[in-house]
Automatic annotation (TrEMBL):
Domain NIF system FeS cluster assembly NifU N-terminal per the UniProt entry, residue ranges: 8-136
Protein name: Nitrogen fixation NifU-like protein
Family matches, as CDD domains: IscU_like (cd06664)
Source organism superkingdom: Bacteria
Gene Ontology annotations of biological process type: iron-sulfur cluster assembly
Entry GO MF terms: iron ion binding; iron-sulfur cluster binding
Taxonomic source organism: Rarobacter faecitabidus
Length: 161
């Protein structure tokens, strides 16, 4: 069996080399659209993320981003984009909570249900051993959270955490 850490490293490198949903698309001034720019000054990572919600503001219709920085920040944004596009906001909120939980896990192997929910996102489990890198992995998720709030200011705060 291949070593899990090698597999996870390969997933991160694949996404860093071939990022998904990269390149901003759509019009920021369209309805149900929000955009966020996030910077991680300790590492020099930057991500600009644009999200368009469905007309009922219940799900993510489209998500695109651009950025620069370390491979963890860029690969994490790529994995996240692939994971959340088309999902309901409730699902996105749950996935964001699971990913934050993974980052708080101090290098423990993730639970099977977390691996199943996060897919390639579980590859970042090892990052939780390195506090300086956790912010790199969370940068795209922070951009997503703000962009969704700006896209749907009337649906209220995401208050479950
Ligand atoms: Zn970084």
């Amino acid at each position: 069996m291949p070593d899990l850490q090698d597999l996870y490293r390969a997933i991160i490198l694949d996404h860093a080399r071939d990022p998904q949903n990269r390149g901003l698309v759509g019009d920021l001034h369209e309805d149900h659209t929000g955009q966020s720019h996030q910077v991680n000054p300790t590492c020099g990572d930057e991500i600009t993320l644009r999200v368009r919600l469905t007309d009922d503001e219940a799900a993510i219709a489209a998500l695109s981003w651009e950025g620069q920085g370390c491979s963890i920040s860029q690969a994490s944004a790529s994995v996240m984009a692939e994971l959340v596009e088309g999902r309901s906001l409730d699902e996105v909120s749950r996935l964001a909570g699971q990913f934050r939980g993974l980052m708080d896990s101090r290098g423990r192997d993730p639970e099977p249900d977390v691996v199943e929910a996060l897919g390639d996102g579980a590859a970042f489990a090892g990052v939780s051993k390195f506090p300086a890198r956790i912010k790199c992995a969370l940068l795209g998720w922070a951009a997503l959270r703000e962009a969704m709030l700006l896209a749907a200011p009337t649906t209220g705060e995401d208050s479950d955490d």
